[in-house]
Amino acid sequence: MTAKRSIRLRRRVLPFAAVAVAAITGLTGCVTLPSSSTPRVIDTFAPRESNEDVPTPVPNQEPDMLVRDFIKASALPDQRHAAARQFLTPEANEQWNDAESATVVLRANLSAAGRRTEDRASYTLRAQRVGVLEEGGVFTAGEGEVTAEIELVRVDNQWRIEGLPPGVIMERTEFYTNYSMHNLYFLDPDRDALVPDPRWLSASSREVAPSLLNMIAGDPRPSLTDSVTNRLGPSVSVRPSETGAEGEGTTVDFQGLPTMSSEEIQEFAAQVVWTLNDADIPGPYRLERDGAPIDERRAGGWRAEDVSDFDPDPDSPQLEYVLTSGDGLVRLTGQSAQRFGGEWSEIPDTRYARLSPNGEDLALVAGDGPNAEGAVLKVGPVDGEPADILRGPGITSPTWSNVDDSLWFLGAGGRISRLSNATDPSSAGEVGQDSLDDIDGNVTDMALDPTGVRLFFVADGQAYLSVISYRDRGTPELGPPLRIGQALENTVTSVGWLDRESVLVGRSAVEAPVARITVDGAMTESQSGRNISARIDAVAATGKSIYALDQRSLLQLDTQVEESERYWREVPGLSGIRAFPVVRG
Question: Reduced to 3 states, what is the DSSP secondary structure of residue 354?
């Protein structure tokens, strides 16, 4: 296993509600992998330890309090929600279909429905939907009001729930407490990078590895189906395996694996190794096909370093360049900032720039703002001369695709376009974006993720994610947009990527000017609010820092410092200067 991680923050399960929503609206050893007789996801949720706090009915409990404890117990999925079933009558227990759905809500509000009698009571549950937890641990962010009718009756002089709708309703705080997020990894269209697919498993599960492996042997979440490749197809399942001595790692024996080339074996191993490594499953990983190593050269086991080219969280360089209105491109060196020189520093009114994924080329927008008739997109090697590629109103937000090296940008009216060849104006054309027709307002900022599979954008102050389909490598098509960070309301002003599994937003709100959101929308988490002021006009992340451009200057937040000690500080050499951070992607 590798301990290296640069700026990833994902293991901290802290809901945004605990930090800022209130202000806005009112996270060693050996392993034996059991068998699975089918390639479907298996139910491996283990019962909780006996000393853990599991809600149970309290004698002589008032009916509304019993319902609240039932809702709390509903967040425990063990043994078909056995904890929650204690609150039901025998008949309701038989009839309740807990598997139909699992809805996560902000908080459940109860109100009496009808007249309470000595033996009967009924309540209406109302709550704001946060999302839905679907089969395979897929969380999908959602909106709207949830309403449910719950009826109670006295049984042996104790209140029990007699009538309730199918499915499970759990509050978000309980969801965070009782579930943990893990990533499945699939291959990008070029099969040289890993795309995360977050899944939520019971935090009390003692068998995370088999759950993840059976999930990855299935399908990616529906939105990713046309955008990723999976070397573990539906014919693959995990077979029983023997555990070695303490500290010898994990053995995984697969059944149904097709014959693979050496390149395909490497891709297969990358998916499995990084999925297990990021879930803290101990390595090395002995990957077998029907009891024999899939690669004799790795008979002793695979390690993360054996598939380091696929590292889903590779090291990134420290911030090297910024844009300023007076000096154009500026290079950061240690504790100073120096005018870059050459034509890149002679361009007036620079507004937005991005480095290509390899850091060799630069795309820059200059002009009098996003509505300027004279906005111009310039592209060229960093150590060379820029060329004027396109000119017109509304050009902004250039961002590079790691799939085909194309350059995406926003044009007039917030339309999303791309240059299939970044230096050839004739290669410009719009991407398929019919799926965005129902979104209110124009797209005002966007950024492609490091794999080129997801597009993060803001429209009408709201944050959205779309998965990109590259079918037959024709015109890329944007999938249905998923609104994330609903708690932020219409305050999003700028967007960027923290890593492959989470995004950054800058906001116009005083409370929590910068926030992080996971790509499934399950978690929204504020960053430090110390020494930073809204509005935030740019956010970015590289190296070990997060950068934000507020109304005074460019600020940086060191993610390696303890959270209680994190302050936004001015970038050395740029005190009092409003500079746009220039990062890769």
Answer: strand
Is the Cβ–Cβ distance between 363 and 354 less than 8 Å?
yes
Question: 411 lies in a domain?
Answer: no
The DSSP output letter for 294 is S
Is the bond preceding residue 513 a cis peptide, omega within 30 degrees? no
In whole angstroms, how far apart are CA 142 and each of 105, 131, 139, 182, 210? 9, 4, 9, 20, 29
Query: What phi-psi label fits residue 583: left (phi over 0), alpha (psi between -120 and 50 degrees) or beta?
Result: beta
Task: Determine the pLDDT at residue 15.
Answer: 40
Determine the pLDDT at residue 238. 81
In one-letter notation, the amino acid at residue 463 is: A
**β-pair partners for 105:** 129, 171
Q: Which of 403, 345, 402, 404 is nearest to 378 (CA)?
A: 345
Q: Which residues of 302-340 are buried (b: 16+ CB within 10 A; e: fewer)?
A: bbbebbeebbbbeebeebbbbbbeebbbbbbeeeebeeb
Is residue 45 within 8 A of residue 78, CB to CB? The reply is yes
CA angle 252/258/261 to nearest 5° reads 95
Report how far residue 345's alpha carbon sits from residue 364's, in angstroms, rounded to the nearest whole number: 11
CB 468 within 8 A of CB 454: yes
Q: DSSP state, 228?
A: -
| Domain of 161, in residue numbers | 47-177
CB 365 within 8 A of CB 376: yes
**How many Cα atoms within 13 Å fall on the side-chain side of residue 121?**
18
Inter-axis angle of helices 63-73 and 78-85, nearest 10: 170
Length in residues, the chain:
585
Report how far residue 472's alpha carbon sits from residue 475's, in angstroms, rounded to the nearest whole number. Answer: 9
Query: How many Å apart are CA 330 and CA 356, to the nearest integer?
Result: 17
Contact partners, residue 452, CB within 8 Å, separation at least 6: 188, 189, 401, 402, 403, 404, 468
Report how many domains make up the chain.
1
What per-residue confidence (pLDDT) applies to 29? 35
58: domain CATH number is: 3.10.450
Q: Tell me which H or E stretch contains 86.
A: none
Integer CA distances (angstroms), 6 to 3, 246, 541, in order: 10, 29, 11
Q: How far apart are CA 483 and CA 131, in angstroms?
A: 11
| Residue ranges in the chain whose pLDDT is less than 70 | 1-52, 240-247, 368-373
185 in a structural domain = no
Domain for residue 459, yes or no?
Answer: no
Q: Give the whole-angstrom CA distance, residue 29 versus residue 466.
A: 39
How far is residue 84's CA from residue 70's CA, in Å, rounded to a whole number? 5
- Please, how many CA atoms are within 13 Å of residue 371, restricted to the half-sphere of its CB? 1
Residues in a beta bridge with 350: 366
Structure confidence at residue 119 (pLDDT): 96
End-to-end distance of the chain based on CA atoms, in angstroms? 28
- Taking the CA atoms of residue 355, residue 554, residue 453 and residue 183 in that order, the dihedral angle to the nearest 10 degrees is 130
Tokens of 458: 């803001």
Quick check: is 150 in a domain?
A: yes
**Distance (Å, rounded) from C-alpha 577 to C-alpha 327?**
11
- Residues linked to residue 464 through DSSP beta bridges, in sequence order: 457, 483
**Tokens 């079918």 — which residue?**
471
- Show the beta-strand stretches assigned E in 203-249: 237-239
- The single-letter code of the amino acid at 19 is V
How far is C-alpha 12 from the chain's CA centre?
A: 13
